[in-house]
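During the no-cost extension, the postdoctoral fellow (Dr. R.K.) reprocessed legacy sequence entries with the updated structure-token encoder. One reprocessed record is reproduced below for audit purposes.
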Amino acid sequence: MIELTIETREKMHFTFRGENRRVDISGLFFELSVDEPLRTCPRELSPALRVAAMMGRFSCGRVALSIDLELELSQQSLPQHESLLQASSLLPEIVAAHQLQATWGVADPARSAARESILQSSPGQELAVLGQQHWVGNGRNPHFSRELARRFGNARRSGIDCRTLLLRSSARSIDLAPLVAAGVHAVRPASVCQLASADFETPLARHAVWVAPSAALVHPRGGWQLAAYLQLAWRLRTAARQRKLVSLAIDAALLAEQPAHSLEFIDKMLSLVSRHVSAGNLQCLTSGEMAREELASRRGCPAKSLLRSAEPAVRRSKVA
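Re-encoded structure tokens follow.
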């Protein structure tokens, strides 16, 4: 038995049983899919958010969409390669049809076969390097540093302003020095990655690298497409109401393993995102745009001095 709690104007509880998937929830679905503009429930903001809203920084929620599109050829089987080629040709069209911006992760942007179809599909698309396990490793090895420099360097020499790394593999921590040396401004962790926050709490990270929040994977889980749809609807409404960022990820390799209707499911999910954006509840930004915004705001806020915070303790010890 699967239980979902969906928050609408009132708290409503629905129970979905595995042996009875056809549950009558037409009223709820009408609430989510009606063509009228979506409205967010008013809520009292915290003092910090109220000040931020007055300053114009959080005028609405934000959504960052990233797509793990193109794997290394050496890491693909022939059937997987053919399925990925089909997804690579259709996904840019789907994103463009909904007038959304996305960050597209490819193995090597300078040599990517999907490069032109992505950049020509619609304005505002961003190309990123997709980090895979065979070269990312633990995020702290010389091979990782060399591959970062090669892939990002080749992209810039070919005229692509590529500054985002999408991690497809899980790494507990990442060495910041090669990221900064390669000109990386944004890192999106893998959906299962748990990056230690302490590894990024340094002056270098504060002013040079923005780490995106863990992305929610937009993917049908078995036959429960409805559950995934409702979960995404809840995430979007929460981000819009609280004026926060929601990070969404699509894994083309996972879609290639599923039947053809998976792309139809992605189309419906992106339609929901698009309606929130059109209604002004959410702003769709690429990871690169988010990084520029966040890093600029950090530079405008002076960092705390550990020496100053230690001064009162030193004085007290002298008095004692």
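Residues 78-97 form the longest helix (20 residues). The two ends are 64 Å apart (CA to CA). The remaining legacy entries will be reprocessed before the final report is submitted.
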